[in-house]
Amino acid sequence: MKPFFDFLIKKFVKDHKNVNSQDVRQAYGKLGGTVGIIINSTILILELIVGLFLNSIAVTADAFHNLTDAISSLVTIISFKIVNRPADDKHPFGYGRVEYLTALLFAGAILVVGYEFLRNSVVRIMHPVTVPFNKISFICMLFALPLQITLNRFTNYLGNTIDSSALKASALESFTDILVLAMVIFSLLVTRFTTFPIDGYVAFIVSLFILHSGIELGKEMVDTLLGKAPSEEFVEELKSSVLSYPYITGVHDLVIHNYGPGRYITSLHAEVPCDVSVMEIHDVIDKAEKEIGSKMNMYLSIHMDPIKIDSPDVRELKETVSKEIAQITGVLSMHDFRVVGNDENKTLIFDVVLDKACFNDEKKELISEQIKGIISNLCSSYRSIVTFDREFY
């Protein structure tokens, strides 16, 4: 199917490889939504005809489920259009989060539909009605299955191509539809061999699938809107990109805000040598901000942290301390290491990044005592001042 999918993309999406462009993302969203409307509307018509003709609540339930899917596809098109609106005075970071809001609203609609059919299926179980087998109706339902599979694979392909949460969520919903449709077909097939009123039971299971998909989609969007952490791959790509520039020896204090797919506002601290011209370092930082920001489609702000790295003794001490405290449970990394004072009264000052689970007063106090013990064993005459940090991603 991939060659056919690529053909559609090349046909309807101009400059389709430039997936960081908001115009291109909108074209992908429009294509995915349009195909979704066509396929879901076709299945909806087929299932409504079959469901009403056979008086099957299971088939009718899935038909209305496909109605919500068709509406979802329309909402996808609209949301991508709104998302592409430029930033303004009221929304300086643009309208990217509209995609998450529309998906959340759609999750609510799914829950309402699921509840209604759950209630109706219970009534049908308590007051069963025999659904007759009809060959033409059965063939119509079989025809709908490959359509749903095609939609699922196409939507998932688009979602992965542009990394769209809305399209990925739609693909997940479509996969649920495949399972539900297969169960409905099974229900129709069973009626050919038995008079057992299976219709209500299958409708009950279908409604549970509908409710589950609505809950999962809703949870995913709520997590995103509340500030879900970005992927580890994204963070590692950002760190390695920054570290690839001259003079930058360390990266820490990353703060990453998500304002919609492909819209990140990011700040971080970069460790640089203190004995290099500020103007020279500034040019490097400025270049990194612009190039990485353009490459990863984000607004990037880098704060310079000058550190003294020309002393072999300081470098060796830093490596030793870093190695030792890395053995402490909950310690992720160390940065901004420096030595101040004269020969008799030296103080080690550094920051330690803790795991989120350890960022509370009790565990910070315990880790602080462990670090003091390590410093005392390494160099008993040195004092230590430790600041605890956490990562905001």
Automatic annotation (TrEMBL):
Pfam families: Cation_efflux (PF01545), ZT_dimer (PF16916). It is found in: Membrane. Its main location: membrane. Residues 35-226 form the Cation efflux protein transmembrane domain. InterPro entries: Cation_efflux, Cation_efflux_CTD, Cation_efflux_CTD_sf, Cation_efflux_TM, Cation_efflux_TMD_sf, CDF_Transporter. Keywords: Membrane, Transmembrane, Transmembrane helix, Transport. Residues 230-306 form the Cation efflux protein cytoplasmic domain. The chain crosses the membrane at residues 35-57, 95-115, 135-154, 175-194, 200-218. Belongs to the cation diffusion facilitator (CDF) transporter (TC 2.A.4) family. The keyword Glycoprotein does not apply. Signal peptide: none annotated. This is Cation diffusion facilitator family transporter. It is a multi-pass membrane protein.
